[in-house]
Amino acid sequence: MTTDEHARMMSANQANWDARTPVHVASRFYGLDQDLDPARWFASFEWDDLGELAGRDVLHLQCHLGTETLAFAQRGARAVGLDFSAVSVAAADGIARKAGLDVTYVRANVYDAVAALEGRQFDVVYTGKGALCYLPDLDRWAGVVARLLRPGGRLYIVEFHPLLNSLGPKPGPGEGPELLLRHDYLSGDGAVHRDATHTYTDGPAVAGATDSFEWMHGIGEVLGALTQAGLTIRRLTESDELPWQRWPHMERTPSGWWRLPEPRIPLLYGLLATR
Questions:
Q1: Sheet of 251-252: strands edge to edge?
Q2: Phi/psi of residue 150, nearest 5 degrees
Q3: What is the pLDDT of residues 67-79, one digit of tens each?
Q4: Which of 211, 189, 157, 264 is nearest to 17 (CA)?
Q5: How far apart are CA 46 and CA 25, in angstroms?
Q6: What is the value of pTM for the model shown?
Q7: Angle at CA of residue 214, ends 210 and 218, nearest 5°
Q8: Which domains are assigned to the chain?
Q9: What is the pLDDT of residues 128-152, one digit of tens each?
């Protein structure tokens, strides 16, 4: 697939996230009209891996509404969020202002982040929970991350496990409740095209741009891209919990998150790398 085709698909994704944002801002899923609790989107192992953030420069790539970005500011970081959706960045800025938190938001495609941030480097770059699937080229992305990190800086990825992405979100017509593999675990077959009027949150249909494109990335591909960019892998954690109830038969855990009944499978992973 050519660079022009990738650019066209990412442009469609940008329009789709512009259209999604008003639905997400008003959704019960994000609960922005309730007591804001950014920490609820984090697993406990994330804080262990991220370490002390007070006084650190932290960049959140593909931040959408900035729900996790706010948690970094609450912990004393100099937090910056970057996203390619102008509507998302405007919403995130308003949410931070309402919360009384000092966060800087920048609108840019992640591949253009070095120029958009004027060469600034960070102690921590954070990304995930549905971000990497919107990137067609992980090698290029890893090179950008390496340039954004100071020497000794940390990249932390918390992503939906490729196994989770391979499972359909709900049974098809006439099927039972069993979870089935519906999508590739590994990359290689190009983008998955979706034309969906509703997003992963509650709320009304998306008005306007409903097309989006996603790319599958196995964990091996992620590790390979990062090591080729000169980063060192420090820790990989697999978790069987999600911060929301993806399937009706998931059970609430003591952490407040959700897991499937046995057999246990990985649904989320955390990956720590350093420059």
A1: 241-242, 258-259, 251-252
A2: -70, 160
A3: 999 999 999 999 9
A4: 211
A5: 25
A6: 0.93
A7: 160
A8: 3-274 (3.40.50.150)
A9: 999 999 999 999 999 999 999 999 9
